[in-house]
Amino acid sequence: MAKFLVKRIFMALLTVFLVATITFFLMNAVPGNPWLSEKTPPQSVIDALNAKYGLDKPLPEQYVMYIGNLLHGDFGTSIKMSKNRPVVDMITEKFPVSASLGIVAVAWATLLGIPLGCIAAYRRGKFIDSLLRVVTTLGVSLPSFVVATTLMVVFCGGIEALHFFPSSYSASNGIIGYILPCFCLGLYPMCYVARLTRSSMLDAINQEYIKTAYAKGLKTFPILFKHALRNALIPVITYLGPLTAFTLCGGFVVENVFNIPGLGKAFVQSITALDYPMIMGTAIFLATFIVFMNLIVDILYKVVDPRINLAKGAD
């Protein structure tokens, strides 16, 4: 176990380093600079700004300086969105907003998607199975901006009789302000989890040990949700790891549509504004979070199925 953890931590650090390197050079390959706008300042001002933020140096030198600062925990300061404000402070401020929505979205998607998948597998070929397959296929196929925009039009003023929710997110709105954004964030994961669970359950319920459990006279509920589901959860857990990281860091489209001041919206704005430190900081934070969640997933494998030997993965 210790050897496995050491190897995974080393691979995690290498992955984050590669993400930082690739993001840095791709970001700087984008045409333009942060100072170009409708009112572009004189060239002398642009040169002074580039010198202030170190953008006048050769790209390899900028890269070495950034990695050096990164090793000391310095993500730099925002150069456009919130000038001279540390990127770490901006991430610390905006991530809890995204995480509060993401936790609710992942929770309802998981708690609803897994039982629906089990029901669809148990009632395979019946009406309820066909209905759930149609619904989940639609949920997986519809882009998030279509779902968000449709809900905004229907429930936020487009149809007066159904104007139940505020048109933009605000902490002062209480629970009602979470409903539409959390529904949009969780719809695709819920449908995908349901489809994944159904597929895994179909494999599990056809195994010999399930037939033996039926032959012993066990009831359907414990057979499905105790014996079959435990083995069927492995692919679901694999999917939920990176999904949780992405969702907690914010749905880029959903946060923009509902005007949520979270990390996802800030990331989109930083790309539009070419705010290099903010782009780098957010990308590295997301990559680190995904790597961490994948490590948690590997450990959960052992919890769900004790037969799995993590030590073999370290060889």
UniProtKB/TrEMBL annotation:
<dbReference type="GO" id="GO:0005886">
    <property type="term" value="C:plasma membrane"/>
</dbReference>
<comment type="similarity">
    <text>Belongs to the binding-protein-dependent transport system permease family.</text>
</comment>
<keyword id="KW-1003">Cell membrane</keyword>
<dbReference type="InterPro" id="IPR045621">
    <property type="entry name" value="BPD_transp_1_N"/>
</dbReference>
<keyword id="KW-0812">Transmembrane</keyword>
<protein>
    <submittedName>
        <fullName>ABC transporter permease</fullName>
    </submittedName>
</protein>
<feature type="transmembrane region" description="Helical">
    <location>
        <begin position="175"/>
        <end position="194"/>
    </location>
</feature>
<feature type="transmembrane region" description="Helical">
    <location>
        <begin position="99"/>
        <end position="122"/>
    </location>
</feature>
<dbReference type="Pfam" id="PF00528">
    <property type="entry name" value="BPD_transp_1"/>
</dbReference>
<feature type="transmembrane region" description="Helical">
    <location>
        <begin position="274"/>
        <end position="297"/>
    </location>
</feature>
<feature type="domain" description="ABC transmembrane type-1">
    <location>
        <begin position="95"/>
        <end position="301"/>
    </location>
</feature>
<dbReference type="GO" id="GO:0055085">
    <property type="term" value="P:transmembrane transport"/>
</dbReference>
<dbReference type="InterPro" id="IPR035906">
    <property type="entry name" value="MetI-like_sf"/>
</dbReference>
<feature type="transmembrane region" description="Helical">
    <location>
        <begin position="232"/>
        <end position="254"/>
    </location>
</feature>
<keyword id="KW-0472">Membrane</keyword>
<feature type="transmembrane region" description="Helical">
    <location>
        <begin position="9"/>
        <end position="30"/>
    </location>
</feature>
<feature type="transmembrane region" description="Helical">
    <location>
        <begin position="134"/>
        <end position="155"/>
    </location>
</feature>
<keyword id="KW-0813">Transport</keyword>
<dbReference type="Pfam" id="PF19300">
    <property type="entry name" value="BPD_transp_1_N"/>
</dbReference>
<keyword id="KW-1133">Transmembrane helix</keyword>
<dbReference type="InterPro" id="IPR000515">
    <property type="entry name" value="MetI-like"/>
</dbReference>
